[in-house]
């Protein structure tokens, strides 16, 4: 364009260009300042009482879940692909069971309806870690894990063909130095393959010496693993386990203090407290029932022929529900199978459950609908009976014993447990939502396969597996818990 032409441009033309540019500028500016689209979560738990023992949080919140993790905890309303109204319900971390023998789909399905999101077999354990985890590949309803067990390892080394628990040489014979070395090798191998802990049932292997026991404790310690121990029973058995912790430096967890302590539960727990005051790493657990359960052919009953007639009457045959006498006890012992022993009072159970050291663990084992009611109702019973009805525990303390306490017990060995047992942003969305006014166990000694009541929703790794109190079919979001050292 020539200079003369430029001079002839109308000022109105220039003004029009400026106006158009300004309009475009403000349009773009307005677009840039427009509010972002509302963030959407996979699942939102709306308006529940969120109780997190790890942080002490206790208040009405909205929880947003995305990709299996807790992505938001807020007072503000959240948007989700699914929004679940949980007003009036408690939103708690999913319960962690350190002592669940029933590691089957059947058992998991009942456990999750009791609020359990992580089920671990850390007492008896297994003799083959790689095989155990491989058998559960593809996911389960809950998270799962296992110990390398001294019992099954001893059975392998001593060629004991007992079913689950030893019934031959592993019970009756001391191990040779070579056999102890082989046990140590197998336990080390299991720990290297990711076992969560070393499990002991010294009561079931009475011929095992202190030397053998402490050798295995040291193997665990060398791999950064604690030991979960069913003691030989009574105060002497506990003293042996504590001495093992003192002599080796191992971390020791004593299973079912209510059962092992029996009528001396208070003294039993005070001995554990004294060990902790000494600086030893000793913890314990209990289940909320007055009866025990085990195998009738086990070493626990080796003296049965010396009993008075009345002693047989406390025992119940699981398969039929019948109470036993001398004749039927002998007959079933020769056959082998599960037995329930009604040997304690509720006062003994209360002494164990209410002690500040005690975690909650079921010691359950449900098979083909038969077993002990602790297999299906332990957690709901604590919440319904001991929190609501008796008031011996406050709700936050009860939840602590079921969630953060067991998570912290294992997290040094199994790092994934640092993301369990907590309600915080970034943690795994393992959550149990229950009605504090109705939660209760419903299983009994004659009908153990009845699910708990009042557990309304359960999420495992962000997936709803219990929905309005009913099991969701076809979902298996549970993951293996194991050490990756």
How would you describe this protein?
This protein is an alpha/beta fold and 485 residues long. Among the domains are: 3-33; 97-290 and 344-425, Metal-dependent hydrolases (TIM Barrel, Alpha-Beta Barrel). The protein contains 17 helices and 20 strands. The chain has helices spanning 3-7, 11-33, 105-112, 129-134, 150-157, 169-172, 177-192, 210-222, 234-248, 257-261, 265-277, 309-312, 326-335, 346-353, 374-389, 395-402, 404-410; strands at residues 40-52, 57-66, 69-74, 79-85, 90-93, 95-97, 116-126, 143-149, 198-201, 227-230, 252-254, 282-286, 291-295, 315-317, 338-342, 358-360, 431-434, 455-460, 463-467, 470-471. The strands form three sheets. Strands 1, 2, 3, 4, 5, 17, 18, 19 and 20 form a nine-stranded mixed sheet that branches. It has an eight-stranded parallel sheet with strand order 6-7-8-9-10-11-12-16, with helices on both faces. Helix 8 links the parallel strand 9 (198-201) and strand 10. The chain starts with a helix and ends in a 14-residue tail after the last strand.
């Amino acid at each position: 364009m020539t200079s003369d032409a430029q001079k002839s441009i109308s000022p109105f033309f220039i003004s029009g260009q400026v106006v158009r540019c300004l309009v475009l500028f403000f349009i773009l500016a307005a677009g840039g300042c427009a509010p972002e689209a509302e963030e959407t979560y996979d699942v939102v738990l709306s308006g529940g009482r969120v109780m997190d023992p790890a942080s002490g949080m206790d208040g009405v919140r909205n929880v947003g879940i995305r990709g299996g993790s807790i992505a938001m905890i807020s007072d503000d309303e959240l948007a989700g692909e699914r929004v679940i109204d949980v007003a009036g319900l408690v939103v708690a971390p999913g319960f962690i069971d350190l002592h669940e023998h029933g590691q089957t789909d059947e058992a998991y399905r009942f456990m999750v309806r009791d609020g359990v999101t992580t089920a671990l077999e850390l007492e008896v354990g297994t003799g083959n870690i790689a095989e155990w985890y491989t058998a559960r590949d593809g996911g389960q309803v809950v998270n799962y894990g296992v110990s390398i067990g001294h019992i099954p390892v001893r059975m392998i080394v001593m060629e004991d063909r007992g079913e689950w628990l030893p019934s031959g040489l592993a019970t009756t014979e001391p191990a040779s130095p070579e056999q102890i070395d082989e046990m140590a090798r197998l336990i080390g191998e299991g720990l290297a393959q990711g076992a969560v802990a070393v499990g002991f049932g010294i009561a079931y292997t009475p011929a095992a010496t202190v030397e053998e026991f402490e050798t295995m404790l040291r193997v665990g310690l060398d791999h950064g693993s604690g030991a979960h121990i069913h003691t030989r029973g009574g105060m002497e058995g506990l003293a042996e386990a504590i001495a093992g912790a003192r002599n080796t430096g191992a971390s020791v967890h004593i299973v079912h203090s209510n059962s092992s302590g029996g009528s001396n539960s208070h003294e039993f727990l005070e001995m554990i407290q004294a060990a902790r005051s000494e600086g030893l790493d000793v913890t314990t657990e209990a289940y909320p029932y007055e009866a025990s359960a085990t195998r009738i052919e086990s070493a626990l009953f080796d003296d049965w022929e010396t009993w008075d007639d009345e002693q047989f009457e406390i025992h119940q045959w699981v398969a039929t529900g019948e109470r036993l006498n001398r004749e039927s006890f002998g007959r079933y012992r020769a056959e082998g199978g599960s037995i329930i022993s009604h040997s304690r009072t509720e006062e003994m159970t209360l002494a164990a459950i209410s002690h500040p050291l005690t975690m909650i663990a079921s010691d359950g084992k449900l098979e083909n609908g038969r077993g002990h009611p602790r297999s299906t109702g332990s957690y709901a019973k604590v919440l319904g009976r001991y929190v609501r009805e008796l008031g011996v525990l406050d709700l936050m303390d009860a939840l602590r014993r079921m969630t953060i306490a067991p998570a912290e017990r294992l997290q040094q060995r199994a790092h994934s447990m640092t993301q369990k047992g907590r309600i915080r942003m970034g943690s795994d969305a393992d959550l149990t939502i229950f009605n504090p006014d109705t939660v209760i166990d419903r299983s009994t000694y004659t009908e153990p396969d009845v699910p708990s009541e009042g557990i309304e929703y359960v999420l495992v790794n962000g997936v709803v597996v219990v929905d309005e109190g009913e099991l969701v079919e076809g979902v298996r979001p549970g993951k293996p818990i194991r050490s990756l050292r």
